[in-house]
Every structure is written in structure tokens, then in C-alpha cells.
Amino acid sequence: MDFILGSFVDQFILDLSPIELDMLESIIEEDDSNLFKWFTGIEKVPEHLCTPIFKKICDYYSINLNHKNILGSLQ
């Protein structure tokens, strides 16, 4: 998922708070195949990743968060 997360990190890494960095680290630690499913809406994003930073990544790439109701608690 470097092609998704890499560009986002390059753009925002210096502006992220310590809490946001922890959230980002949690996302980066996930398996790439799961990240692909979540970012494409194939599967719902797990509750522990429904964070403001996940939404910020989706916003950065204009990923439709309402697609298949993938982000439940962030809507």
C-alpha cells in the first residue's frame, strides 16, 4: 500500500500530531491485502481503524466513505 500511504505520508507527516502519528502507525501495520479491501470498499473498515486519520487519508484521495457503508462510525 506504499502507493496510497506513501504519498499521504510525504504530504502530511510533518503536520501530524503525536496522536495522529500513532493512528497512522496502526494503519501502516495492517496487512496490505486488508488495506486494499478497506480502501476500495470491498470490506468494512474495522472499528479500531475508524479514526480521523483514516478519514483524512480517504479525503486526501477522494475515497467515498459512504461507499458500501465502509466506515460506519465516521459517517
TrEMBL record:
Please indicate if the UniProt record lists Acyltransferase as a keyword: no
Keyword terms:
Chaperone
Keyword check for Chaperone: yes
State the superkingdom. Answer: Bacteria
Any Pfam family from its record, for instance, is Sdh5
Family membership noted in the UniProt record: Belongs to the SdhE FAD assembly factor family.
Q: What is this protein called?
A: FAD assembly factor SdhE
Q: Lineage of the native species?
A: Bacteria, Pseudomonadati, Pseudomonadota, Alphaproteobacteria, Hyphomicrobiales
